[in-house]
Design a protein that fits this description.
The complex is a heterodimer of chains A (329) and B (525). Chain A is built from 13 helices and four strands. By secondary structure, chain A is mostly helical. Chain A has a two-stranded antiparallel ribbon with strand order 1-4. Chain A starts with 18 loop residues before the first helix and ends with a helix. Chain B has 525 residues and is an alpha/beta fold. In chain B, helix 16 links the parallel strand 17 and strand 18. Chain B starts with 23 loop residues before the first strand and ends with a helix. The interface between A and B is large, with 33 and 49 residues.
């Protein structure tokens, strides 16, 4: 025992407060806090109100659901570029089932989400079975999904007049829209899956070191398939809710969520943790973007500011955190 | 300089007499890695047109010396002279500029590139614009390959070539520019006899043109055949430099092994007999995975510590991975506790009670960015679930980790510490704990003490003994033959086969090393 250098195992224990480390972990949160304070000062009457806060959360809900799903492949070290097309298809499938086949809302929802799961399964099988890189695999599958979408809808939007369908996203309970509850409940479930189940811990292990994970008895390929399925289901849920919000599924309505979800998840990886993807980080990423968009609208800036803001936020958020981690050593 | 003319057939008629200053001279080289001395005052001299062999057991310091010459490591002390001038080699680029070329075992070729493309990497001949002059590169490559005897396809992707063809491409790459020295690390490890013969004649041609060759090999007959001088290292120190003609294989083997005192307890006594009378835990019959493992037979008994000795590349790691389901065999069968055992993945093996502590601790054993507790839990996460909710309980996980930390004396500030911040010995104990938590009937450890300091090493041996005592069967793979003294029996592997099983009392470093080095004639006897 005496041969072991005393400090060998204790390198981090005596470390005093490290400003870089702190900044690396909490910098992104500081940005969000600072933004809220500044905008609240500038626009106290419109921004800092209960209604606007609910509005921001409501705006965040759909993006958060798809981004939380995307967090799973990212945690396991994979990518999914098919989520936007998957969401678009889910809206089309759900609405077409209701309009053409007279399916009830729950059945239409269930089948559309099942479709999302199948897309995820195919992604997972192409990645694990054929060994195709996830970027290429999901791009390919995503393109096929667009084709299926057009084959079903012929490129035209599908409208559903039913009040109950629209009410799913516009309805409120205690003054708060349903999608906000869905976001919160889903976040709680997904957080538990990722952090409190063998499955979730296995995903993190696969993302951390797939070789060590396999040699520790984790069935790596199975885990990879499952992350794609979860991601596909979340994407489809977002797609269906999007269609419900307008009562109308457009063929490319969900496409834009792809970049939003990636931006949110990557920004979120710089929140609280050292570059690891996690559910709470992803939600904070989505909310930060929504707060920014909301502020841009309230202050009355042009739409192009949204893009400038989102791009800058992503680069700064991840870049600063990376630099800070390097400095913290 | 030695004036003795060597009579090695290929090097005979060597036109370039070692008249000028030696082409490479390393003097008084020392190097330590965190407290451990890897090299202590080592000197070598290589003349133009000479072949100098570097010999020593695994871990003797050959690779460190070569890495210093290649600019990959920096020496703590000592001087290097190239063609009589003092030089400092701080990077691989420096070494290349000085005309020093290295053909490592991994070859460092780009698998998807053709032979020509690989050879053209870093070749700037004929180019004034910065663009690759492809015609000049091809002309030069063809010239080089012809010079090496030809017959190596230049337009085939390297991944589709045979090992010896790849090796020739790698050699060819270093000859694209003017080479003064070529260091070859275990070149013939995967060669057939004809391929090796061809290499020897290539070496003879190279030396005729004045190139110095540094030849590193475990194959002593080859060493004596191709080289003029042999420098022997043992535990980082120089044993001496011998003229190849004046020394025979037995003497060289003795110089490599040396006489050392083992500080490990002597092998256990009549207990061995008792273990062997019990039913084997694992029986292995004809297990093969071509081209590295050919038909291994082995019985492993409960409470037994079975050592596996062999040189690097003898198939030890491959055999362990087959028993653990990490690779699938091309032939043979195994039985675990009398029942058929053909694991398709480590998942199957762990569930049946077989665990492997892998050779590469950092890349195969650990999640470096995760905590000690999570790493220890990795193979047995199901046990950390709350019985009622079936959800993982971080509290339980940390409690079990704390038990392991205490049981194995792992030095951590807390079980939440990142495993990447621990010392090598403590990291290894974390990996061992992870698999011990799975309560294996058979625990295989592949080089468990590499990069582990002396104190922790002793503790690891203690853990291994304790596990065997508690009823587990242990397979201990090691290149450090002294540590095999704790084994009840030692299986010796050579070229993918178990060629001998020695009982503990006779498993001296001396004896094992000579078994590992046995020449082909002896093998057939």
């Amino acid at each position: 025992m005496t041969n072991i250098p005393i400090d060998a195992g204790l390198r981090t224990s005596g470390r005093s407060f490290d400003a870089w480390k702190f900044f690396g972990r909490y910098g992104a949160l500081l940005v969000l806090g600072l933004m809220i304070v500044v905008v609240a000062t500038l626009e106290p009457d419109t921004f800092a109100t209960r209604d606007n806060a609910i509005n921001i959360l409501n705006q965040s809900a759909l993006a958060a659901i798809i981004a939380m799903g995307l967090t799973f492949p990212l945690v396991a070290g994979e990518f999914d570029l098919s989520i936007g097309y998957n969401a678009s298809l889910a809206g089309i499938v759900a609405c077409t089932l209701m309009v053409d086949s007279g399916a009830s809302i729950p059945v239409a929802f269930a089948l559309a989400i099942l479709g999302g799961a199948v897309i995820g399964l195919v992604n997972g099988l192409v990645v694990t079975g054929l060994g195709v890189n996830a970027l290429v695999a999901t791009l390919g599958v995503g393109t096929v999904v667009v084709g299926i979408n057009y084959a079903i809808a012929g490129g035209l939007p599908v409208s559903v007049g039913e009040e109950a369908f629209i009410d799913i996203t516009l309805g409120r309970f205690l003054g708060i829209p349903y999608p906000v509850y869905m976001m919160i409940v889903l976040a709680a479930i997904l957080w538990v899956v990722l952090n409190r189940t063998v499955l979730g811990q296995s995903m993190q292990a696969v993302g951390g070191n797939p070789v060590a994970a396999r040699l520790s008895g984790i069935r790596v390929d199975r885990i990879r398939v499952i992350v794609f399925i979860i991601c596909g289901m979340c994407a489809a849920l977002t797609g269906v809710l999007l269609a419900s919000r307008t009562g109308n599924a457009s063929v490319n309505g969900g496409d834009g969520y792809l970049l939003n979800a990636f931006a949110a998840a990557f920004f979120g990886s710089a929140v609280l943790r050292d570059g690891q993807f996690h559910i709470i980080g992803t939600i904070i990423g989505v909310v930060t973007v929504s707060v920014g968009f909301n502020a841009i609208a309230l202050i009355g800036l042009g739409t192009y500011w949204q893009y400038l803001f989102q791009g800058t936020l992503l680069i700064l958020g991840v870049g600063v955190a990376t630099v800070a981690r390097r400095r913290a050593g | 300089m030695r004036a003795t003319e060597t009579t090695t057939p290929q090097a005979a008629g060597n036109g370039v007499a070692p008249a000028g200053p030696p082409i490479v001279e390393m003097r008084g080289i020392s190097k330590s890695f965190g407290g451990a001395r890897a090299l202590d005052d080592v000197s070598i001299t290589l003349g133009a047109g000479d072949v100098l062999a570097l010999c020593g057991a695994n871990g003797a310091g050959k690779s460190t010396l070569v890495r210093i010459l290649a600019g990959v490591e920096t020496a703590d002390a000592g001087t290097i002279r190239v063609a009589g001038e003092d030089v400092s080699i701080d990077s691989p680029q420096d070494a290349t500029r000085l005309g020093l070329n290295f053909i490592h075992q991994e070859l460092n070729l780009v698998p998807k590139f053709t032979g020509l493309q690989n050879m053209a990497l870093g070749y700037e001949g004929g180019s004034r614009t910065g663009f690759l002059d492809r015609r000049a590169a091809r002309r030069r490559a063809v010239e080089v390959i012809e010079g090496l005897g030809g017959g190596v396809p230049l337009d085939t992707e390297v991944e589709r070539l045979t090992v010896s063809e790849r090796w020739m491409i790698s050699l060819g790459r270093s000859l694209m520019r003017e080479a003064r020295v070529i260091a070859m690390d275990e070149p013939t490890a995967s060669f057939t006899e004809e391929e090796a013969e061809r290499l020897f004649s290539v070496i003879a041609d190279l030396t005729k043109s004045g190139v110095g060759v540094l030849y590193i090999s475990h194959r002593l007959d080859e060493v004596l055949h191709v080289s003029r001088d042999v420098t022997v290292l043992r535990n980082g120190r120089m044993v001496g430099t011998f003229v190849a003609d004046e020394i025979d294989r037995d003497r060289l083997t003795r110089e490599i092994i040396g006489r050392e005192v083992t500080d490990l307890a002597p092998p256990p006594e009549e207990a061995v007999e008792r273990h062997l009378h019990s039913e084997p835990v694992l029986t292995v019959r004809g297990l093969a995975r071509e081209p590295r493992v050919h038909g291994v037979d082995l019985d492993i008994h409960p409470r037994e510590i079975l050592g596996v000795a062999g040189l690097v590349g003898s198939g030890r790691t491959e055999l362990a991975r087959l028993m653990f389901g990490a690779d699938s065999p091309t032939g043979g069968a195994m039985q675990l506790d009398g029942k058929d055992f053909s694991p398709r993945s480590p998942y199957d093996a762990i569930r049946r009670g077989v665990a492997l502590v892998p050779e590469e601790r950092r890349s195969e054993g650990l999640l470096l960015q995760e905590s000690v507790a999570r790493n220890i839990a990795l193979a047995t996460m199901h046990d950390d679930r709350q019985p009622t909710t079936r959800l993982l309980s971080p509290g339980r996980m940390r409690a079990t980790a704390k038990e392991m930390v205490e049981r194995f004396g792992i030095k951590v500030s807390s079980v939440d510490q990142l495993v990447g911040d621990l010392s090598g010995g403590n990291q290894q104990k974390v990996v061992v704990s992870k698999y011990v938590r799975a309560a294996p009937k058979l625990l295989i450890l592949d080089e468990p003490t590499v990069g582990v300091d002396v104190g922790a090493r002793g503790e690891l041996y203690g853990i291994i003994r304790e596990l065997a005592h508690a009823g587990a069967a242990i397979v201990l793979i090691s290149s450090d033959f002294e540590e095999l003294a704790i084994c009840d029996r030692v299986a010796v592997m050579r070229e993918g086969r178990v060629v001998d099983i020695v009982d503990g009392a006779h498993a001296t470093k001396d004896h094992l090393t000579s078994l590992c080095y046995a020449v082909p004639e002896e093998k057939q006897a």
